[in-house]
Structures are given as C-alpha cells and as structure tokens.
C-alpha cells in the first residue's frame, strides 16, 4: 500500500486507456501531483453497459482501489463519458473524495465556432443519451450540430497504444459523416469545430486532424478536467502541488494478452508500474 507525505494523490479511472489523454493534461498542469490510473479492461467497453452495471462495477473497483492500494487519494477522476453521464451523482454520494467527471466540450465548441457548424464525435451510447441532447439544446442551440457515434475509433485508439499501425483508411471510415455531404451534413466544408466526446479519441488527434484538415479545430475536455482537479487540490483542499512528482502506478482488472503490449504506452505517460488491481 502506497503512502505519500506531501504530493497530493489523484486516481484516474476509465474502462480502457482513453483516460490517458486526460491524465496527460493533469500531469502537465499539476506536475507535482501523484497520479495513479485504474482501468477496467475486464468490463471494457462501458459504452453499451446499463446504468445499474456501471454503478455497481465502478463503485466496487474504486472502493477496492482505495482500500487496497491508496486510501490517501484526494481526488478521483472518472475519465469516461459513459460513466460520467450515468453514475457520477451516485458515486459522489458513496465516496468522500471529490469526484471529477467528463462533460463533452459542446459549450466551448459552440462558443468558439465561427461558422456555427460543429461536429460531435462520440460513442453510439453517448450520442443517443438524453444528457447529450440536452447539452446540445442548452449550449449549441444556434449551431448546426452533426453527430456521429463510433465504436471502431475506440478500438483503433486502443490498438495504437499497443503499438499497432493504424491505417488512415480505417480512421477515415469513422469520420465519413463529417467528410461527406448528407441530409444530416449538407455542407461538410462549413464544419470548423469537432468535439472529441470520448476520452479515447484525443489519442488519435493527429490522425483525425490530418484527415479533416487545418480548418477544423478539435476540442476535448482534457484541459477543463485538469483545471477542475487543480481547483479541488489547491483552492479547496489547500494541498501542496509544488513537491517533486512521484512515479505513478497503473492497475488493470483482468490479466490477458492485451496488457503487456500496453506497458510502453503507460511508461510513456508517467506510470512506472502496470499491475493487477
């Protein structure tokens, strides 16, 4: 069991490796924070799971982590759009730590778009949820919003972190709704902003940007999440984030053949160890 004297401890939780895009923003903004990562590869993906399953599963895993690995954790980040939209309020009732969730960056995208023509790229589950429709109606009412749900892009992001070569044609197939004219997207050349509403998708930022071109700004929630973590650690909890960073640990929930190929990626993101929870 790990104990820290000065560096504030943050847990980043996701079903897969998408949360690494979030943890990178936190590490950049708060280099003195101690980050650990927990991903539920046994339950991956979360996109089509029920609310009941997600609440029971995430509560158990986070509880196990706090009991067995680091009871001194000060902030928990739910780096998964699906879990954030469905079970965040209940998780906040069950744990004493502040819990930061993911909100698709629809509001800043609508505010910054010059053409008022934006895209929302997410998993199919996120696209169809009332929560997402409410975000669009509340914050992008004056915009034309093209939505597309992709499971395949999640698979491609996971494969990239395992060191596999990602064919541009496979990424392009996931972006066709934004690239080609259709009744839902009559003017694809007008689109100037794309919201990456799954934490996996920023891991493919360079591939997506190359296909959409320099005229399309890609937006995600990573920086906003990092700022929220900083608010809790510094403003609310009054913790010292200036101490030297400790090497983090990453934990998975099932030993299988996908783990070892991920080790270099976790090392590159600042996680010195990768082990079973």
TrEMBL record:
Binding sites annotated in the UniProt record for substrate: 14-15, 46-47, 81-82, 199-200
Enzyme Commission (EC) number: 5.1.1.3
The keyword Thylakoid is assigned to this record: no
Protein's recorded name: Glutamate racemase
Similarity section: Belongs to the aspartate/glutamate racemases family.
A GO MF label: glutamate racemase activity
HAMAP family given in the database record: Glu_racemase
Top-level taxon of the source organism: Bacteria
Segments traversing the membrane: none
Native source organism of the sequence: Gilvimarinus xylanilyticus
Short name of any one Pfam family annotated for the protein: Asp_Glu_race
Catalytic residues as annotated in Swiss-Prot or TrEMBL: 80, 198
Catalytic activity: L-glutamate = D-glutamate
Role according to the record: Provides the (R)-glutamate required for cell wall biosynthesis.
Alphabetic keyword roster: Cell shape, Cell wall biogenesis/degradation, Isomerase, Peptidoglycan synthesis
């Amino acid at each position: 069991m790990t104990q820290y004297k000065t560096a504030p401890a943050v847990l980043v939780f996701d079903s897969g490796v998408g949360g690494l895009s979030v943890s990178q923003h936190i590490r950049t903004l708060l280099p003195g924070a101690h980050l650990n990562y927990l991903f539920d590869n046994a339950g991956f993906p979360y996109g089509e799971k029920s609310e009941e399953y997600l609440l029971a599963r995430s509560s158990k895993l986070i509880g196990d982590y706090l009991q067995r690995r680091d009871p001194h954790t000060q902030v928990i980040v739910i780096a998964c759009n699906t879990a954030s939209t469905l079970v965040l309020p209940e998780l906040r009732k069950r744990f004493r730590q502040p819990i930061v969730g993911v909100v698709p960056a629809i509001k800043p995208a609508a505010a910054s778009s010059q053409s008022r023509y934006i895209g929302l790229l997410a998993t199919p589950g996120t696209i169809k949820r009332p929560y997402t429709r409410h975000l669009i109606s509340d914050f992008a009412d004056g915009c034309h919003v093209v939505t597309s749900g992709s499971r395949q892009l999640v698979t491609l992001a996971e494969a990239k972190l395992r060191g596999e070569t990602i064919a541009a044609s496979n990424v392009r197939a996931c972006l066709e709704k934004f690239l080609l004219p259709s009744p839902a997207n009559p003017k694809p050349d007008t689109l100037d902003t794309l919201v990456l509403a799954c934490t996996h998708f920023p891991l493919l930022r360079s591939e997506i940007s190359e296909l959409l071109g320099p005229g399309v700004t890609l937006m995600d929630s990573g920086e906003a999440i990092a700022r929220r973590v900083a608010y809790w650690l510094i403003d609310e909890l009054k913790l010292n984030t200036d101490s030297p960073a400790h090497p983090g640990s990453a934990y998975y929930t099932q030993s299988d053949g996908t783990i070892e190929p991920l080790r270099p990626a976790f090392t590159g993101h600042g996680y010195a160890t990768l082990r079973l929870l």
